[in-house]
Amino acid sequence: MHKLLIKGGRVIDPQAGKMFAADILIVEGEIAAVGPGLEPGEGAVMDVAGKLVAPGLIDMHVHFREPGFEAKETIASGSRAAARGGFTAVACMPNTDPVADNRAVISYIKARAKEAGLVKVYPIGALTRGSRGEELTEMADLKEAGAVALSDDGRSVASAAVMRRAMQYARMVGLPVISHCEEPTLSAGGVMHEGYISTVLGLPGIPAAAEEIMVARDIILSEYTGCPLHIAHVSTAGSVRLIREAKARGVPVTAEVTPHHFTLTDRAVADYDTSTKVNPPLRTEEDVAALKEALADGTIDVIATDHAPHTLEEKDVEYQQAPFGLVGLETALGLVWTELVIPGVLSPVEAIRKLTVNPARILGLQEGVLKVGGDADITIIDPELTEVVDPATFASKGRNTPFAGRRLQGLPVATIVKGQVVYNRNLAMIS
């Protein structure tokens, strides 16, 4: 019988909203007991004194690139990056080649994740065929195959009529719609936030209005259809205001923010580092302040990375030619701790809630909590550990991070999925 005792840590319970000293006994991949003074019997012991024991982190927005773009990332390399970042589960976006718009691709992703055998990988199915925004996918089929949500992330559904029908059908099959909010005629050709900095740098801009117009439209359609709507990678103060007002009216809308959007501003683009080229773009100091306020007051439910790896050759070009995206799985927790927890924007419990139980609830997953009888998906965090970000050490194939050289605090030191230790930085195991 496989047993593991996690001993001496402080447990974070995001559902109950509290932290307490306790041991956790894992038997055959499930949590068998939570409490003080537990004994392992014949099992191994992991000493986590001085550490925080959290439910396994969930990233509901990653791009693992497989099938079709394996040079950027594979499901196996992405899973290793997730484990190293403290994530026990991820939801991967459908903009692969072929697009994850049918049962076969969803099944392939699940099979490859099982082969990798590291973290749980939940596919997100495309909203429209080929993510072209024209014809709806077979949503019931996608759900049956294992899709946990529907999205054309990377592209906005330009047609309001198509988006309305998509929401009507998604509601019928019981899947949330994740919206990449970008009005394509306003953002066309833009490579960074439209404003003073873009003017100084001579780069074409993407106005905040390009995001906010689509946020407003999709909120209206969600209210009209009753379909749960999740707004991906919110980046502007105007979007925050629209989401806050919609929630107050009872619209079934949730939202996420990325660590790079609550950490960096468009000033980071000043040296033309293509790792700062993301979509939506890095915005202004006022936008960052609004995002932090929205995290604190609950307007933004989730922190997700939008992990988007590219090859060195793709990114090592002129700013306007480079693809959008940065890698985020292995820096996420450190940025959350350094930028939000230590300054007091969020408590440790609130931060972990946005990385566990909230994404699980939106996607209809059983994960995100530590409960007896549940899967032993656990992340061990050392709140004092610091490290300078070195992309050369990443498990991801991607190296496109704007955080190289930045010192982060509050890092994952072990990741456990169904009782198996899939990442261990330096914790002693006594058997």
TrEMBL record:
<dbReference type="InterPro" id="IPR024403">
    <property type="entry name" value="DHOase_cat"/>
</dbReference>
<dbReference type="GO" id="GO:0006145">
    <property type="term" value="P:purine nucleobase catabolic process"/>
</dbReference>
<dbReference type="GO" id="GO:0044205">
    <property type="term" value="P:'de novo' UMP biosynthetic process"/>
</dbReference>
<feature type="active site">
    <location>
        <position position="306"/>
    </location>
</feature>
<dbReference type="Pfam" id="PF12890">
    <property type="entry name" value="DHOase"/>
</dbReference>
<feature type="binding site">
    <location>
        <position position="310"/>
    </location>
    <ligand>
        <name>substrate</name>
    </ligand>
</feature>
<dbReference type="GO" id="GO:0004151">
    <property type="term" value="F:dihydroorotase activity"/>
</dbReference>
<dbReference type="GO" id="GO:0008270">
    <property type="term" value="F:zinc ion binding"/>
</dbReference>
<feature type="binding site">
    <location>
        <position position="279"/>
    </location>
    <ligand>
        <name>substrate</name>
    </ligand>
</feature>
<feature type="binding site">
    <location>
        <begin position="63"/>
        <end position="65"/>
    </location>
    <ligand>
        <name>substrate</name>
    </ligand>
</feature>
<feature type="domain" description="Amidohydrolase 3">
    <location>
        <begin position="285"/>
        <end position="423"/>
    </location>
</feature>
<dbReference type="InterPro" id="IPR002195">
    <property type="entry name" value="Dihydroorotase_CS"/>
</dbReference>
<feature type="binding site">
    <location>
        <position position="63"/>
    </location>
    <ligand>
        <name>Zn(2+) 1</name>
    </ligand>
</feature>
<dbReference type="InterPro" id="IPR050138">
    <property type="entry name" value="DHOase/Allantoinase_Hydrolase"/>
</dbReference>
<feature type="binding site">
    <location>
        <position position="306"/>
    </location>
    <ligand>
        <name>Zn(2+) 1</name>
    </ligand>
</feature>
<comment type="function">
    <text>Catalyzes the reversible cyclization of carbamoyl aspartate to dihydroorotate.</text>
</comment>
<keyword id="KW-0479">Metal-binding</keyword>
<feature type="binding site">
    <location>
        <begin position="324"/>
        <end position="325"/>
    </location>
    <ligand>
        <name>substrate</name>
    </ligand>
</feature>
<protein>
    <recommendedName>
        <fullName>Dihydroorotase</fullName>
        <ecNumber>3.5.2.3</ecNumber>
    </recommendedName>
</protein>
<dbReference type="InterPro" id="IPR011059">
    <property type="entry name" value="Metal-dep_hydrolase_composite"/>
</dbReference>
<dbReference type="Pfam" id="PF07969">
    <property type="entry name" value="Amidohydro_3"/>
</dbReference>
<keyword id="KW-0665">Pyrimidine biosynthesis</keyword>
<feature type="binding site">
    <location>
        <position position="180"/>
    </location>
    <ligand>
        <name>Zn(2+) 2</name>
    </ligand>
</feature>
<feature type="binding site">
    <location>
        <position position="233"/>
    </location>
    <ligand>
        <name>Zn(2+) 2</name>
    </ligand>
</feature>
<dbReference type="InterPro" id="IPR032466">
    <property type="entry name" value="Metal_Hydrolase"/>
</dbReference>
<feature type="binding site">
    <location>
        <position position="153"/>
    </location>
    <ligand>
        <name>Zn(2+) 1</name>
    </ligand>
</feature>
<feature type="binding site">
    <location>
        <position position="95"/>
    </location>
    <ligand>
        <name>substrate</name>
    </ligand>
</feature>
<dbReference type="GO" id="GO:0004038">
    <property type="term" value="F:allantoinase activity"/>
</dbReference>
<feature type="binding site">
    <location>
        <position position="153"/>
    </location>
    <ligand>
        <name>Zn(2+) 2</name>
    </ligand>
</feature>
<keyword id="KW-0862">Zinc</keyword>
<dbReference type="GO" id="GO:0005737">
    <property type="term" value="C:cytoplasm"/>
</dbReference>
<keyword id="KW-0378">Hydrolase</keyword>
<feature type="binding site">
    <location>
        <position position="61"/>
    </location>
    <ligand>
        <name>Zn(2+) 1</name>
    </ligand>
</feature>
<dbReference type="InterPro" id="IPR013108">
    <property type="entry name" value="Amidohydro_3"/>
</dbReference>
<dbReference type="InterPro" id="IPR004722">
    <property type="entry name" value="DHOase"/>
</dbReference>
<feature type="domain" description="Dihydroorotase catalytic">
    <location>
        <begin position="50"/>
        <end position="237"/>
    </location>
</feature>
<comment type="similarity">
    <text>Belongs to the metallo-dependent hydrolases superfamily. DHOase family. Class I DHOase subfamily.</text>
</comment>
<comment type="pathway">
    <text>Pyrimidine metabolism; UMP biosynthesis via de novo pathway; (S)-dihydroorotate from bicarbonate: step 3/3.</text>
</comment>
